[in-house]
Amino acid sequence: MDPPVAEPSGSADEPDPSSPQPPPPPPPTVSPSAAAAAAAAAAATTSSSSPSSSQPSRYESQKRRDWNTFLQYLRNHKPPLTLSRCSGAHVIEFLKYLDQFGKTKVHAQDCPYFGHPNPPAPCPCPLRQAWGSLDALIGRLRAAYEESGGRPDSNPFATSVVRIYLREVRESQAKARGIPYEKKKRKRQTGMTSTSSSSSASASSSKASDKAGEGGSGIAGGGE
């Protein structure tokens, strides 16, 4: 009888730990042009994902310029003024000072084109700052004052004398130029009246269809 054959202790597929292992495959090579393109794409992605707060908005830039202009006006004032001693009267002086740089024609009462929005010929009336520009300027300076550490209760741009002055400028320019400043309010009221009239007309038409021959037309009159 043949002697029994001893079974192998391990599988033939298992590598021998004592045998040397093959080196790992080399990393894929990247051409210089591909590397440069990848770097440019990464830089563009980083630039596009950066927060927009790093760039000041147009409003913030304009507010900063207005604030610096006002501080320069205080330094050039005779006698020089400090911000802590600035009052609403000084703010009005500043607004009148800016009129020399205005581009809006404001007709005098003795001008033949007083009250005409589109004068047919030029006239010697002076140029002024438009009311809308002054109103927006005061809003920016009021915010800049408090952002610079000023207290709201001592803000010279929020005083009643400044508000009264702006209202007088608005009314006088509206008369001189023949352009009222209440178009938005009238448009809003007209839109609300039109919507109400349309709704009333639709409801009345539906009611008239359901009850044909009963009563009058039932259409409610719109607002004036």
TrEMBL record:
Residues 58-185 form the ALOG domain. PROSITE patterns: ALOG. It comes from the Eukaryota. This is ALOG domain-containing protein. GO terms for molecular function: DNA binding. InterPro entries: ALOG, ALOG_dom. Keywords: Developmental protein, DNA-binding, Nucleus, Transcription, Transcription regulation.
